[in-house]
């Protein structure tokens, strides 16, 4: 059951005030549940700067990474891997976030404040983990924010080959439970790894134009 938190005390700038060439669109505010949900509903997401004392940074990429639900590229080897794992939802969200936050990973950005904020959103029913299990061990997974038909992926990890990709395949299947809905799978930025799975770039304006319909769509049954 989702709980709508109190509204944020902060206001975010509208697209008319975004620098057309800069992914960074705001700084400051807090990570209260109402603030985070307000940001995602406007097409923004937070990332810390990595420097102690700096304000939180808020991004709306000029070129947004999106995975079309009918565009996921599943290789023959990945199809075989899918059969090796069991997909579970929300059985180990804290463990998934902690694995994604492992400081040994390059370019880590999930600090204690981010961890606490997203676990609180999980408690309120807005953050979900999709997990790949094998032999009763968490082998990989991902987590993200679900609002209506929007799933905003935050991070993914694997401990076994292909386990994070299998979790992504599982997520796409969960989002496809009602093909008539205007679902949107946002992955923030298109990396070479994500591009190999079918992620494409869309212009910021195009993403923001699609967002209202996605937010108004039904929540996938697995996340309701």
From TrEMBL:
Keyword vocabulary terms for this entry: Acyltransferase, Cytoplasm, Transferase
Protein name per Swiss-Prot or TrEMBL: Leucyl/phenylalanyl-tRNA--protein transferase
Function, in words: Functions in the N-end rule pathway of protein degradation where it conjugates Leu, Phe and, less efficiently, Met from aminoacyl-tRNAs to the N-termini of proteins containing an N-terminal arginine or lysine.
Gene encoding the protein: aat
Cited InterPro entries: Acyl_CoA_acyltransferase (IPR016181), Leu/Phe-tRNA_Trfase (IPR004616), Leu/Phe-tRNA_Trfase_C (IPR042203), Leu/Phe-tRNA_Trfase_N (IPR042221)
Family: Belongs to the L/F-transferase family.
Subcellular location: Cytoplasm
Enzyme class: transferase
Pfam families in UniProt: Leu_Phe_trans
An example Gene Ontology CC term for this record: cytoplasm
The reaction(s) this protein catalyses: N-terminal L-lysyl-[protein] + L-leucyl-tRNA(Leu) = N-terminal L-leucyl-L-lysyl-[protein] + tRNA(Leu) + H(+); N-terminal L-arginyl-[protein] + L-leucyl-tRNA(Leu) = N-terminal L-leucyl-L-arginyl-[protein] + tRNA(Leu) + H(+); L-phenylalanyl-tRNA(Phe) + an N-terminal L-alpha-aminoacyl-[protein] = an N-terminal L-phenylalanyl-L-alpha-aminoacyl-[protein] + tRNA(Phe)
Main subcellular location: cytoplasm
Coiled coil regions, renumbered to chain: none
